[in-house]
Amino acid sequence: MESVNAKYVSQKISKTRWRPVSHSSLQQPDIFATGSWDNEDNKISFWSIGNHGSSGMDEGFEGDPQLLCEHKHDGDVLDLQFLDQDRIVTTSSTGAVTIFRHHQNSQTISVSQRWPRVHRYPCDNAPCTGVVCSSPEIVTVGEDGKIIVFRADQEGVIRVIENADSSTIHAVTYLRTTEILTVNSIGQLKLWDLRQQSNSPSQILSLSGDRLPLHCVDRHPNQQHIVATGGQDGMLCVWDVRQGSTPFSLMEAHSAEMWEVHFHPTNPDHLFTCSEDGSLLHWETSTHSDMPSFLQGGRNNSMISRSAMAPAGGNQSLISTWLSGDSSKGRLETTHMLPSQTLSVNSLDVLGQCLVCGTDGEAIFVNRQVPV
Amino acid sequence: MEELDVEPAITNIPAASDGKHLGFAWGPGDILAYETLYMAPGMCAKGSGCSFIHEVRKDEDIYSPILRKLFNESHHIFVGLQTIREDLPSKNKKTQFVSISKNYRSVIRACMEELQQVAASVLVLQVSILLAIELIWNLCEVLFIDAAPAGPLLLHLLDWVRLHKGDVDEKAREVLQSESPAEHHDYWDVVVSYVLQGRFEEARQMLVKQATLQPAARNMYKLMDTLLSKMPFYNPGGTQTLTEFDVKWRHWHEEVDRCLQDNSFASNQHLEIICKILVGDEDTLLEHKELLSTWYHFLVTRLLFCHPTVKPTELHYYAQSCMTMFLDLRSVPEPLDSILLAAFEFDIHQVIKDCSIALNNWWFVAHLTDLLDHCKLLQSHNLHFGSNLREFLLLEYASGLFTHHSLWQLAVDYFDNCPEFGHVYLELQIERVPLDTERKALKVLRICEQRQMSEQVRSICKIMAMRALRNNRLGSALSWSIRAKDAAFATLISERFLQDYCARGTFSDLDLIDNLGPAMLLSDRLTFLVKYREFHKLYEENRFSEAAKLLLSLITAKIAPRSFWMTLLTDALPLLEQKEVSHSAHCALHCGFGHDLCFILQ
């Protein structure tokens, strides 16, 4: 493991996200945004790692991230997503949702739109814990158990699902363009079909056994029925939402809460998780053949999955190696990506060959040569 | 209580009105002051009072964004230091300790550089404090941690002085970049400064420039060059012993002295001065106070030219005399001077004590003492308060951190490494961390759970559960009570559900009740609730026999609250009319019905 340098930034980082790069260019990402928490004055900041052009050479870690600009943020930044190249959406512990615009020319940030106090209790604000967006639609969830749908550039909210959950919803992600997935603090994964007007989920999946809170969820980039979640006990669960109501496989990952899980967007044989115990793991599935797993058809003979053997339906659909996750068999490799003894790693993001993460030790780590 | 060493500093509270009587209350890191109505005899009320409460903070450093990096980075180093294994051989440990000490110092330097770049006037004081801290730390590293013996000791001290006198290089750069360096007005200052610091290579290179300008004096310059090049420096890695080096050095010293006596440099005033310096003439050295600028530079230079084989135990004689010679009789020694002197006297406790007084933040003394303690340099010196010095300082530092809204997380690791009182301190402090969001509460809980602080876990979960309950988030409240394994609270929540049901006739939060799984066994009332809801589901699905069996078990298990018995019995009535209900169940219901009816009617 090469040494990864820490950049100390005088604020505890709660979220960090790469700015999306256009698919046409093969550029590596060069700008990322961070949000802070637990400060008297919280901030969102944009940073640059100056990665222009291809990084063919061995200059992985030269240059610390440089601060481009920052802006005050009211309340902890509980979640942050890029809406497009210039705008980010943030959710706050005051229950507000804000769109900030990054002006590249002048390197300034301005508030483009704001929905204050959208998540609230009858007599108090409720922290808004998660956001996902697919421009121009924005969906947020909060501790008040509501799901709220917005449209950028439109005042007011489009739709509110009151009482979507009787407990806190911790994270949300898109399953399909009209379906979202939420996870809550009693260990349930709920599917919502936004085309329907009903206020109840179309499907509820949960762990058998202890109902521990789930904190993060991410969908496989190519196979939309495969979803990974992480929760309070640090277990990585991979689910097949088409079948069954329990996870397909469970893997012990961390010794404390898992805060974020991400499939690599272009190379989904790689998965990254980060946790309260201060570790960031890189998971890599390996297949016996040379063909990448997503091109293999039919069933792989050496797979052993914990539940049903064949996928429902006669169609021999592709079976991802994630669903057979059995780390003792050596099919799954995990590597620690950070030096030990950091405080909690709250957030990570990976794009191309670049990985960025932020910790409670007020440090940002950037790795420009992730082996994917 | 001991006598005060220094006068206490006075802080004026600008907003408080003149002449008013102030009351105060101690806080964890600060004082709250407020105006009172009390009027001493002779005072008259002047204007209306100020209605503010003033917060007086002693330690401003933890709120500085640049210094925060210092706290975070040093925390990382501290945690790494604690994990060094005890069973390593002492030689390996020493190298590790020295490298850790260098790490700490580089962190201080990085902060200092950043502060200098910001260039605000208010930060000048902070920069100078950091400079002083690094100076002291470096000296402690040389004397205590590295503990160099005679020979290498002087070399380390030379490095120390060179590192902390950066203006020589700046001046040299200026001179060299000028058109004619040898004629620059600072030229000789630079040459002499180099000589005073023992940087003979650079001095010789500079002299060459002068030599080319004065071809007539070529022989003199050549002689000086030879003298400078022949001065022996002790080589720690070499085969030469200290005695051999001493002999060689005395030989060289005599040669220089001879040159002086021969008046070889008499025609050139500057070279004559350099020659006198080389021979160690104190008066000449003292004439260059401006170039030396500090008494410790004077000390090291004097040792270089008079006594390069100085032993650590002899240092304090020289230090004391140098300080006396250098400083005017009128000037009061600054705190820094007395700290350095204490270091030269190898009085570690005095160094720590003086630093504690002089600085307003425990950071420096806590980390330095911890490192020295790991090097086994502190005598086990029991203080009145029961713990040793290292623990006392770490506790003070960490307690100060805990008052910060953000840095409290760092303090946890410090408390962990205080074996005697750390746990107690943590228990008291962690309950005071404000819990605004669930995420923060989860982090605090994780800290408590990892340290088996079950009281605190229960109390935090109860706070969060109550808050959730007040906001009518029954699912959240239940998940908190499950975490705390708080059966009583789970019972409370179940009661709320049942009350809701009675009031409205339907259950709320079905997604919760239907999907509890084994968590429902946490409390009887909760189990009842889940089973009762199951009963309703079975009834709605027309599975009457199963429904009847379930209802029967509910009645006989007696986990229903009293208030619910009537409801249960009324639920049983329609079942008795159902044909599918088995005969035995029928009878049982009748019996149960009768039994409970009697019970209720009593």
UniProtKB/TrEMBL annotation, chain A:
Record Pfam families: WD40
Location(s), subcellular: Nucleus
Gene3D superfamilies: YVTN repeat-like/Quinoprotein amine dehydrogenase (2.130.10.10)
PROSITE patterns: WD_REPEATS_1, WD_REPEATS_2
Residue ranges of WD repeats: 207-249, 251-293
Main location: nucleus
Keywords for this protein: Nucleus, Repeat, WD repeat
GO CC term, one of those recorded: nuclear pore outer ring
PANTHER family, per database record: NUCLEOPORIN NUP43
Official protein name in the record: Nucleoporin 43
Organism, as annotated: Sander lucioperca (Pike-perch)
From TrEMBL, chain B:
Subcellular location per the Swiss-Prot or TrEMBL entry: Nucleus, Nuclear pore complex
Keywords: Membrane, mRNA transport, Nuclear pore complex, Nucleus, Protein transport, Translocation, Transport
Pfam families associated with the record: Nucleopor_Nup85
One GO CC term, this protein: nuclear membrane
Major localisation: nucleus
Keyword Transport: yes
GO terms classed as biological process: mRNA export from nucleus; positive regulation of DNA-templated transcription; protein import into nucleus
Record InterPro entries: Nucleoporin_Nup85
Keyword Protein transport set for record: yes
GO MF annotations in UniProt: structural constituent of nuclear pore
Protein family (similarity comment): Belongs to the nucleoporin Nup85 family.
Function: Functions as a component of the nuclear pore complex (NPC).
Subunit structure comment from the entry: Component of the nuclear pore complex (NPC).
Protein name, entry field: Nuclear pore complex protein Nup85
Gene that specifies this protein: nup85
